[in-house]
Amino acid sequence: MRILIIGGTKFVGRHIAEAALGEGHDVTVFHRGSTGAGLFPQATHLTGDRNGDLGALSAGEWDATIDVSAYFPRQVRSLAAALGGRGGRGGHYIYISSTSAYKTPVSPGFSEDAPLAELDDPATEEITDETYGGLKVACERAAVELFGAGATTIIRPTYVVGPYDYSYRFTWWVERIARGGDVLAPGGQDDPIQVIDARDMGRWIVSLAERSVTGIFHAASPPPPFGFGDLLEAIAAEVAPAGTRLTWVEADFLREFGESAETIPLWPGGDSERDINTADPSRAYAAGLSPRPIRQTIADVHAAGLTAGSPPPEGVGLTPEREAQLLAAWRAIQAAGPDQP
After folding, report:
1. 162-198 per-residue burial string, b: 16 or more CB within 10 A, e: under 16
2. Does the predicted model carry a pTM greater than 0.85?
3. CA spacing 20 to 30 A to 65: which of 55, 226, 235, 286?
4. Secondary structure of the chain in the HEC alphabet?
5. pLDDT beyond 80 at 89
6. Does residue 301 contact residue 161 with C-beta atoms inside 8 Å?
């Protein structure tokens, strides 16, 4: 089949493109040309800017369009206009949204029918922690309006991980534990967390397009309950050298020292809406999502990091000096005893 991917050269889009090409599909990737020029020589490359120049899409026709890069509803609207919208040249429309689309707090184990976030200012062009989810909801609604509910699929992933993850959040934990020593483990071991390997999500999304499956689905793994302790223990079992120790440090202590989910990647205890990491993936599993074991993802991420040999992005995760400082302060408090200030 003919598949158009809007943004098919970075991380999630790249894995979707690889999956589609691996299945023998006729793939077109639309991108700005800055990162994908050397990728996928067997695919058709169309260059442009979805914020203004969509002229490269004027002549083609596709059975499915997979959109990984729409953050504002105007981007969905301009794409629909370029492709002819409902019944137009884009075919089945698949939009990658987020579990951030839900109104918080959510109930543990929430389904795709949970209440959604709403924007105070629907016309906002500013992406913040407060607006991101509502903007995704606005994009979803624009998709259904313009492409039709019978031709639209919405994917709401949790944290997406795997090779080429430029956010480096999951990779940071793999590489930190692989260095060994005394590792600061934040908060409680039962703090919920979910991830999804981008390669598994990519193959599944291509299969949804092949089967013309529509609807709304969580892309999350594993089913809850699954704690941050389970995740770090799995990483340690795969990559930690002998003598590595996880030292669990209470969330209140870390917050008092100014740490958060921004400074400690993926830490659910740094997020007041932690239950967003308990999405029920059963609807997606019934539609064919089959995540690989987490330890396989860990091993592959570690191997990719060794091959790349590039330093982590600046500002992601604790520096060794900061981690040592926090651990020393934590040990001092523990040694002083519970009755000490």
Report:
1. bbbbeebbbbbbbbbbbeeeebbbbbbeebbbbbbbb
2. yes
3. 286
4. CEEEEECCCCCHHHHHHHHHHHCCCEEEEEECCCCCCCCCCCCEEEECECCCECHHHCCCCCCEEEECCCCCHHHHHHHHHHHCCCCCCCCEEEEECCHHHECCCCCCCCCCCCCECCCCCCCCCCCCCCCHHHHHHHHHHHHHHHHCHHHEEEEEECEEECCCCCCCHHHHHHHHHHHCCEEEEECCCCCECCEEEHHHHHHHHHHHHHHCCCEEEEECECCCCCEHHHHHHHHHHHHCCCCCEEEEECHHHHHHCCCCCCCCCCCHHHCCCHHHHCCCCHHHHHCCCCCCCHHHHHHHHHHHHHHHCCCCCCCCCCCHHHHHHHHHHHHHHHHHCCCCC
5. yes
6. yes
* Both tokens assigned to 133: 């989810």
Q: Are 120 and 179 in contact (CB under 8 A)?
A: no
Matching residue, tokens 């059963």:
282
Give exposure, 235-256, as e/b (b: 16+ Cβ within 10 Å): bbebbbeeebebebbebebbee
Contact 110, 278 (CB under 8 A): yes
Residue 214: both structure tokens together: 């529509």
As a whole number of angstroms, the distance between CA 93 and CA 86 comes to 9
Q: Report how far residue 334's alpha carbon sits from residue 321's, in angstroms, rounded to the nearest whole number.
A: 20
Distance of alpha carbon 295 from alpha carbon 237, whole angstroms: 8
Instruction: List Cβ neighbours of 49 (8 Å cut-off, separation of 6 or more).
Output: 32
* Segment 219-239, tens digit of pLDDT: 999 999 999 999 999 999 999
Would you say how long the chain is, in residues? Answer: 341
Token reading at 118: 């709403």
- Only one residue has tokens 């004027």, namely 58
Indicate whether 340 pLDDT > 60. Answer: no
Residue with tokens 């795997």: 162
List, for residues 22-44, the tens digit of each pLDDT value: 999 999 999 998 776 689 999 99
Phi, psi of 17 (to 5 degrees): -60, -45
For the record, the structure tokens of 142 come out as 């624009």
